[in-house]
Design goal:
The complex is a heterodimer. Chain A is built from 16 helices and no strands. By secondary structure, chain A is an all-alpha fold. Chain B folds into two domains: 99 residues, no CATH class; 67 residues, no CATH class. Chain B is an alpha+beta fold. Helices cover 46% and strands 13% of the residues of chain B. The chains are: A mainly alpha, B alpha+beta.
């Protein structure tokens, strides 16, 4: 099929697999000298790449609900990206096996009798494991049906399938919101079990949506010069991608600042140490970098139309936003382990790029299975014939 | 003010595609002073007309900056200089709590300068405009698409331009008096 992924991506796919296996292998080898550190690095990489797949799923469902030309170019990429969640389910198993190594509430020396009764019940290892299994089950089922209906639409072209996709996506977005909120509380917030923030899950959702949109923008840039994407990808479409990135960048800043403002104004002893750790020592520089490179600079650049319409510039900016999303997750989680400031660990890079390699390999192998543009979507046919 | 007998020629088209095609041909033929009137936004029309950037973004930026600094000063001055009060032991210059209002005023001033800047640059309010002299022009807000070639275009020639528009298969070509 000439409408699917061009053959030169075979090598990218193999390269990703090799890089993934080698780097993850090297990190595991380093892990023999310090398993705790290995799993701390692994947790950050796991949270980021799971979020990438979930972000793809969320944007996909959003597009089923609201439509728009921008989504047809992205649809296949998002479907393939969402399918990586099953890989992340496998990669979650090691984490579930070593919960006491990472989470202070599960550590053998934890004084569980002193915990409030509900917290003791909620933050128990069995319940934690059960919840994680439940999240992945819900996501995998949702992604399975999103892909199944879409494949049926390609095959049969039956117009009623669009309706089915919408009926799935509406509740699906609700499920996404709830599960990601709980998952972010479990995996990241409970690293510091005394601290809590109700906006926390939203920050993770926005980071997922932002990193997924940024990734597919970069991939579309590479694919846009040849058929079939060249049929519908125009500078105007990149303008749309740029606007989406702008929205998510602003929303990220809005939510992150709201959380900060509320906790700063309240100045309560259970809440404020979380920010004290993140705004002192080396972490202060990371926080400053987030403000400048995750908000201020991308915000001003994305306001400008000439940047949004030049795909190479926009893709470079999107790549920068992916890096900043990683740093944001790092800044949200790692101070729990390294309160004095960020430390240098090879495993941080090894696990992040290693899991990323496996992610990219699965993403590309899913992408090659089907044509790059959805067939028979009634709304896309309208675009192609009237655009 | 001297009165021109002719403001321009108005051509009426039945479909958006016909209008778009006519606009492209007119641009190719060298017409620069032209405008189109449609009942709904037509994709690609602005580009075909040779849409150029305006000064609205600059006005919005200035408005936004005024709102931003004004909003911050509005809170900074009374809290730090004019009437400093100890609130919850916080420093007088508690800038994080000034941000929401600073942000809101930035948006408000930017939005207002966008609306009024756009209106001013468009020359509004304009109580009288010659295009309304064109017959059936009210259909531009219903189901017809209009192309106007202005008489002040250097390429304009009452006879040749009329011929040109007829060749573009306009439904009707009419003269527009000033």
């Amino acid at each position: 099929m000439n409408d699917s992924l061009p053959p030169q991506y075979d090598r990218v796919q193999q390269g990703s697999l090799v890089a993934g296996v080698v780097l993850l292998g090297l990190s595991i080898a380093l892990g023999f000298s310090n398993w705790t550190q290995f799993f701390r690095s692994y947790l950050v990489a796991f949270i980021f790449w799971t979020g990438m797949g979930l972000g793809c799923m969320a944007i996909l469902m959003l597009h089923h609900m609201v439509g728009g030309t921008w989504g047809f170019a992205l649809r296949r990429l998002l479907e393939s990206g969402a399918k990586t969640v099953r890989l992340m389910a496998v990669l979650a198993i090691p984490l579930l096996l070593i919960v006491p190594k990472l989470y202070s509430w599960a550590a053998p020396e934890a004084d569980r009798a002193a915990m409030p009764p509900f917290k003791r019940f909620y933050l128990s290892r069995t319940f934690f494991t059960g919840r994680t299994i439940f999240y992945f089950a819900a996501w995998i089922v949702l992604i399975y049906f999103l892909n199944k209906f879409s494949a049926e639409q390609d095959r049969t072209g039956e117009p009623g399938i669009l309706r089915r996709l919408q009926n799935l996506s509406g509740p699906g977005l609700l499920i996404y919101g709830l599960t990601v909120t709980y998952a972010s509380v479990d995996w990241a917030m409970s690293l510091e079990p005394k601290w809590f923030s109700t906006i926390y899950g939203m920050i993770f959702m926005v980071t997922q949506a932002l990193s997924a949109t940024a990734l597919v923008t970069v991939v579309v840039m590479f694919l846009s010069d040849r058929k079939p994407l060249s049929d519908i990808v125009t500078p105007l479409l990149f303008n749309d991608f740029g606007n989406l990135l702008l929205v998510f960048t602003m929303l990220w800043a809005y939510l992150s600042f709201s959380q900060y403002l509320i906790i700063w104004a309240g100045n309560l002893q259970d809440e404020i140490p979380w920010y004290m750790a993140r705004a002192s020592g080396g972490w202060a520089w990371v926080a400053l970098a987030l403000i400048v490179f995750h908000f201020a600079i991308p915000f001003f650049l994305l306001l400008m139309r000439f940047i949004k319409r030049r795909k190479r510039i926009l893709a470079a900016l999107a790549a920068g936003l992916i890096v900043m999303s990683v740093i944001d997750i790092y800044w949200l989680t790692v101070p729990a382990f390294e309160p004095k400031g960020p430390e240098f660990h090879l495993t941080d890079y090894g696990t992040l790029i290693g899991i990323g390699g496996l992610w990219m390999w699965l993403f590309l192998s899913q992408l090659r299975k089907r044509p790059l543009l959805p067939l028979h979507d009634p709304r896309l046919e309208e675009v192609l014939h009237h655009g | 003010m001297r009165k021109h007998a002719l403001y321009g020629l108005m051509a009426e088209f039945e479909t958006a595609d016909a209008l778009l095609e006519a606009v492209r041909k007119a641009r190719e033929a060298g017409y620069r002073r032209l405008d189109a009137y449609t009942p709904f936004p037509v994709e690609g029309l602005a580009d075909a007309l040779g849409f150029h950037t305006t000064r609205v973004p600059l006005i919005v930026l200035i408005g936004g900056l005024i709102g931003c600094f004004g909003g911050f000063f509005l809170q900074y001055y009374p809290n730090v200089i004019g009437y400093p009060l100890n609130i919850g032991g916080k420093p007088y210059d508690s800038w994080p709590s000034f941000i929401p209002i600073t942000f809101e005023l930035t948006i408000l001033c930017a939005a207002l300068s966008a609306v009024f800047g756009m209106l001013a640059l468009n020359g509004f309010p304009t109580p009288y405009h010659p295009v309304f002299n064109a017959p059936r022009f009210e259909l531009a807000s219903q189901n017809r698409f209009f192309l106007l070639l202005e008489a002040r275009d250097p390429k304009f020639d009452a006879e040749k331009t009329k011929q040109f528009l007829v060749e573009l298969k306009a439904f009707e070509v009419s003269e527009v008096a000033t």
